[in-house]
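Table S5 (text form). Sequence records supplied for joint modeling of the two-component complex.
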Amino acid sequence: MLAITRLTVREGLRKRQLYLFLGIASFMILVLLSPGNIRWDESKITEPRLIAQIGLWMTLVFTSFLAVFVAMNAIGSEVERGSTHLVLVRQVSRARFWLERWLGVTTLAWLNAALMLGALMVSLGLKFGAGASKLVVPGWWLFPLPVACLTALVTAINTRLPLALAGFGGIVAALFGFFRGQLGIVADAGSGTHAWIAQVLVWFSPPLNRVVSQVFRMNGGEGLDFWVLHECMLYVYATAAIGVLLFSRREV
Amino acid sequence: MLVTKGLCKNYGRTPALRNLDLEIRPGEVVALLGANGAGKTTTIKLLLGLIRPSAGEAKVCGFAAGHMQVRGRIGYSPESRRFHEFLTIAETLCYYAELARIERSRRPKEIERAMNLTGLMELRDRKAGKLSKGEAQRLSVAQSLLGDPPILLLDEPTSGLDPVGRIAMRKLLERCGEEGKTVLLNSHILSDVESICGRVLILRKGVLAWQGQISEVVTARQSVEVHAEVLTAEAEASLHADGFTVLRRNSHWEVSPCPASRVPRVAELVVAAGGRIQALIPRGNSLEDLFVELSGGEDNAGHYSTDRA
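The corresponding structure-token record, covering 561 residues in total, follows.
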């Protein structure tokens, strides 16, 4: 059951760069959140909810880049080293191979997100008490989906394009995803080429901005808006379908 | 069991395989030979369904190559053996056994059988990344034997093995043949091919240049060198009339086809026509001679075919 996924996770856990990246990201979050570092209009921000929101936003940013990092060679490395031959000559369909590899790298990215959220939770709890730790909970609910969006997109790109282009594409997509709201404004405001390009970028960007705003709203006492989850799931389905289609047509 | 009709494969504008028609019957052990780039690996990949043909078709057990129905019946050992370096031999085989849908309860026995057959039992806990080329080769063959598939497609199964390993691998492949498995192997080590295979297919620049039984190669290509003080035109005519082919070399004639039993007849004809023989040297041509000849020059291709494609 899920042999390829298990092997992918095991393989990923052996990458030293991953731990280095994770360590640096966690360290930066903790340093930036330490007392006196966050200021607004020359005054220190000490309100736990604001600090938690900034921490969650930073965690999502780092998690997104980590997701790109773990997924950018999910398919290409296997094809290049020829180990796909030994898998695809067995009763393993190309769709299953693609989906299991994607699930493997997504699990790795989820593990990273969980570790970073855990570190954030502990640091907030130590600084402001147990009540502050609960402010991280929306992150546990919502962060797996944007991570899955990005891993699906990057894995789909890596199905046909090399590691560097997949990584670059993933980072660009993540940036557009965070600024999707602004792109939407440009798209709605004009009617020329700029607006048209902005609209296309809105369609193709993962809905990271929606996740961020939903986390903030939940910290403000609102409930979970399931449409955000649906939007993320649709993005995952669409990119995964494209990835599977591309891989089914690729010669290995 | 393995059939191709008009099979063609182009990589971009470069043709890798052209109009390949072949049929491998159940229980046959067949070698696919050819120089580098002749199209051997492409043929195997097409039969496995890993790549799509540009034209023609490849069928395995009546199904299109790569069909799910036939995948469980094929064991494949590829030329490039890149296993996951952090897995031990036993873990690697366990992984492939799981992908081969071998029941969990049967897996340990299957893995043990594959390791015993390939002499990997003592190395079962060694990491794949620490294996020598020969050991990795044995692991590659071991994973192809998981599930006891009736068809084996082996790309260079004896390369990288030491002499003892090669003998063991030859015996294993001979045993597979005796058990009625259909084996298509691709090798550059022609002495192994001669001892393991019954039939040979030779590819040249993507075209099937020759195919036939190995025994035919030896019989059809046996010749005798005739060294003499005087070799007359009458002697040459007599030999031609008796069904021999005569090739004039610098210091001698080469008369073929000439199995050992026909050497006295050659001597008789030459002497009767006034030739004075100094020596008659029988030459047993091997598969290697044929391979070199077919790979070496366009003009010579197929010169000695007994079953020209």
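Note: The beta strands of chain A are 39-40, 43-44.
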